[in-house]
Design a protein that fits this description.
InterPro entries: Complex_I_Subunit_2 (IPR050175), NADH_UbQ_OxRdtase_chain2 (IPR003917), ND/Mrp_TM (IPR001750)
Main location: mitochondrion
GO cellular component, one term: mitochondrial inner membrane
Order of helices and strands: HHHHHHHHHHHHHHHH
Number of helices: 16
Number of domains: 1
EC number: 7.1.1.2
Number of strands: 0
Strand content: under 5%
Protein name: NADH-ubiquinone oxidoreductase chain 2
């Protein structure tokens, strides 16, 4: 994504919309921030060299407009002392975040975007819905718990038969939503820690895919030279995103597991751990395909300087969790 002045402007208004929503003291102000965020992200989706960007932008606009409509109506009803509308309001926020059972739009929309826009959708665009969802966390604990368990199952099973990497990361994001909602049920600081680590891990994976122009399993064989250090770093980044110890991505999952054990919520813990095995399976399928198999076709060349920077950055973010697990745990306490 080329950072032209117009794109920088839209990115600034996107961040401004998030700031307005999470700092607003009324649902109307939060709705205004959501609409500003939506109208800023639509132009960022359009790319001249991507024929599917218009379809992705239309899908995203229709779904987000539906969520904003339900949210605004529910907020008005809540202001009229009709507390029964807190459930539709929470459902609208789950729809905007792409959580199950309202996940149907997330992977297809992600598939039509380029990697930088997909990264924004998987990370930055989840800040506002999750922050607003925390306002009604005590009233809607059952709804959020069910949505978390459904997200874990959908994200784990949906990615098993995927060969398109953007759809695979989309289902992975749905699975991570389950962990984030579970963390949100216990404390906001735990959710912030998990989201921060997830964003960094997603950034390392997506940037590797973006600079190597990898969108499909076959591209892992054709676009990356055999014996390249990028393959090993991609292996580490994907396993870290899956939460495999001893990588950085395991630290927030370890904290959530401990909190679920202390709160005796063993049903959710069992579902989350079971779903993690499935996600690690399709992460391993990607990494083993890129490491073991090699195509005889001509490989695309990658700039050495760029590759070195990516390797150093990705290795650092994947291994830094080994150095500070006790510091992260102290932050949570």
């Amino acid at each position: 994504m080329v950072f032209s002045p117009s794109r920088c402007l839209f990115m600034s208004t996107l961040i401004l919309g998030i700031t307005i929503s999470i700092s607003s003291n009324s649902w109307f102000g939060a709705w205004m921030g959501l609409e500003l965020n939506l109208l800023s992200f639509i132009p960022l989706i359009f790319m001249k060299d991507n024929q599917y960007s218009s379809e992705a932008a239309l899908k995203y606009f229709l779904i987000q407009a539906l969520g904003s409509t339900v949210l605004l109506i529910s907020a008005v009803m809540i202001m009229m002392k009709m507390q029964v509308f807190s459930a539709p309001l929470s459902a609208a926020l789950l729809l905007k975040a792409g959580s199950a059972p309202f996940h149907f739009w997330f992977p297809p929309t992600l598939e039509g975007m380029m990697w930088p826009q997909a990264l924004v959708l998987m990370t930055i665009q989840k800040i506002t819905p999750m922050s607003l969802l925390s306002y009604y966390i005590e009233d809607q604990m059952m709804l959020i718990s069910v949505a978390a368990m459904m997200s874990a199952v959908v994200g784990a099973l949906g990615g098993l038969n995927q060969t398109l990497l953007r759809k695979l990361l989309g289902y992975s994001s749905i699975n991570h939503m389950a962990w984030m909602m579970s963390a949100l049920l216990m404390s906001e600081s735990m959710w912030l820690l998990y989201f921060a680590v997830y964003s960094v891990m997603s950034f390392s994976v997506v940037m590797l895919f973006h600079f190597t122009q990898t969108f499909h399993f076959n591209h892992l064989l054709n676009h990356i030279p055999p014996g390249s250090a990028v393959k090993m770093v991609m292996f580490m980044s994907l396993l870290s995103l899956g939460g495999l110890p001893p990588f950085t991505g395991f630290v927030p999952k370890w904290i959530v597991i401990q909190q679920l054990c202390w709160s005796s919520n063993f049903l959710m813990l069992t579902i989350l751990l079971g779903s993690s095995l499935f996600t690690l399976f399709y992460y391993l399928r990607v990494t083993l395909s890129s490491l073991v198999l090699s195509s005889a076709k001509t490989k695309w060349s990658i700039k050495v300087a760029l590759k070195s920077k990516l390797v150093i950055m990705a290795m650092f973010v994947n291994m830094v969790g080994l150095l500070v697990p006790s510091a992260a745990y102290s932050f949570m306490m």
